[in-house]
Write a structure and sequence with these properties.
mainly alpha, 60 residues, two-stranded antiparallel ribbon
């Protein structure tokens, strides 16, 4: 993990912690930007996800 391009998300978020100081603003912004690509498609597809789960649960 010597270069920044090889770091994973948790490793990058851990970089905002230094000693006894935590840059909470930058860490929160990075966490939100990390979560958004997952949340937006799931919000649009939630109706289809629920329909698929319930149709698969019906027996017979």
């Amino acid at each position: 993990m010597n270069s920044d391009s090889n770091k994973t998300v948790p490793t990058t978020l851990n970089g905002f912690i230094s000693g006894f100081n935590v840059d909470r603003g930058s860490m929160s912004a990075a966490a939100v930007l990390t979560i958004l690509p997952t949340m937006v498609p799931s919000a649009f597809a939630s109706r289809h996800l629920v329909q698929g789960l319930t149709s698969g649960a019906v027996k017979g």
